[in-house]
Amino acid sequence: MSGTKILFVDRDGTLIEEPADFQIDAYEKLRFVRGVIPAMLKLRDAGFEFVIVTNQDGLGSEGYPRASFDGPNDLMLQVFESQGIVFREVLVDCSWPADNAPTRKPALGLVQHYLRDRGIDLDNSAMVGDRETDIRFAGNLGIRGFQLRTEQFGGEWDWPGIAHELADAPRRGRVQRDTKETRILVEIDLDRSADAQVSTGLPFFDHMLDQIGKHGGIALTVKADGDLHIDEHHTIEDTGIALGQALKQALGEKRGIARYGFDVPGAPSADGQLNRQHGFTLPMDETLASAALDFGGRPYLVFDGTFKRERVGDMPTELVEHFFRSVCDAAALNLNLKVEGDNDHHKVEACFKAFARALRMAVRREGAELPSTKGVL
Questions:
Q1: Most buried of the four, 86, 173, 195, 333, by CB within 10 Å?
Q2: Is 10 part of the annotated catalytic residue set?
Q3: In sequence order, what are the residues at sequence separation of 6 or more whose Cβ sits closer than 8 angstroms to the Cβ of residue 303?
Q4: How many CB atoms lie within 10 A of CB 181?
Q5: Domain range for residue 156?
Q6: CATH number of residue 215's parent domain
Q7: Beta-carbon neighbour count of residue 277 at 10 Å?
Q8: Which of 167, 185, 200 corresponds to the end of one domain?
Q9: Rounded distance between C-alpha atoms, residue 279 and residue 284, angstroms
Q10: By CB neighbour count within 10 A (0-12 exposed, 13-18 middle, 19+ buried), where does 274 fall?
Q11: In whole angstroms, how far apart are CA 265 and each of 260, 268, 273, 287, 366?
Q12: Integer Cα distance of 227 and 100 in angstroms
């Protein structure tokens, strides 16, 4: 549905750090949670509005006078506003837990008007808090809940991760491929750049997969447990299959992607002719590799390259082409990969880097249209 997306947020332990006595009743206790302001700016730009929903035990009592709360709270709001973050409402329940008040989280007494407002997009709204009661509140409201990671209450999220999840609508794939020969796990996030986490039992192959993550600008995790006591074939082949399946899963219908990854024509050569070597061309010392790919739904590999050595490190060179063929078949992509040079280490590594750079171009978002006249990819 269309409408306003609301991010409901807890206050203590979520926007500002919670002190040992659980009361932020003095200015010197005011500390902002790490990463909260950049994350909320990103969410603001993604169309979210913000509502604070907080339980303040016994607020207004002799032990917790309202004036002690208002000063630090007003300063907090002023700091957020100075950074461009404005809260639509600040909803405070002042009851004690034993009161079981209908306005106390996880109950919904404070937010009944949002349930009745047809202009609110609850399907795409969310709740962020540091306690299990915040997640129960989200469940009662029928929205997604994120529990911040803290030493005291657990949780698994941080603010950058929440902003990425809600604002980027990340394209993710997760494939667990188990056979009698291998157990492969591949996780991929096409919209987040991060250091690759790779472990296959083959250090040189790990290094090559790391190139895909780094130069592809993606978050990549690969964990492989294969029958290396026999040879490397099954581990490398099945990793390629799982990676291709994860790419296909992450791209979904492929709406909005560039689809193609290739280099633009180069500068004029010495004879004045335009260099029209197609493919994402990448040099590595004496080696030159080029890759051009298409997520068009038709698997096809053209590999043009030879190797002198039987293996580089612990990776047989005959499996370089086979790995890319496995990726193409599983991802339904067309890849033309060419490499020439003298040093086989450079040639293998340049192949993986050129593929990664072409991949980076092909999966980038350009809008919402399907890049095909057929209406399907």
A1: 333
A2: yes
A3: 321, 324, 325, 337, 338
A4: 14
A5: 5-167
A6: 3.30.230.40
A7: 11
A8: 167
A9: 15
A10: exposed
A11: 15, 9, 11, 19, 21
A12: 58
Q: Do residues 296 and 336 lie in contact, with contact meaning Cβ atoms separated by under 8 Å?
A: no
Is 12 marked active-site?
A: yes
Question: For residue range 44-84, what is the model confidence (pLDDT) as tens digits?
Answer: 999 999 999 999 999 999 889 999 999 999 999 999 999 99
pLDDT in tens, 96-151: 999 999 999 999 999 999 999 999 999 999 999 999 999 999 999 999 999 999 98
| Total number of domains in the chain | 2
Same domain, 96 and 237: no
pLDDT at 250 > cutoff 60: yes
| Residue 215 parent element (H or E) | helix 203-216
The set of residues, in sequence order, having a beta carbon less than 8 Å from that of 57 and lying 6+ positions away, is 22, 64, 95, 96, 97
239: enclosing H helix or E strand: helix 233-251
Taking alpha carbons only, the member of 240, 172, 249, 248 closest to residue 200 is 240
Residue with tokens 């299990």: 132
Contacts of 65 (CB under 8 A, 6+ apart): none
Which is the catalytic residue, given 10, 93, 130, 210?
10
**What is the distance between the alpha carbons of residues 67 and 238, in angstroms, rounded to a whole number?**
64
Looking at residue 97, what DSSP letter applies? G
Residues 337 and 260 in one domain: yes
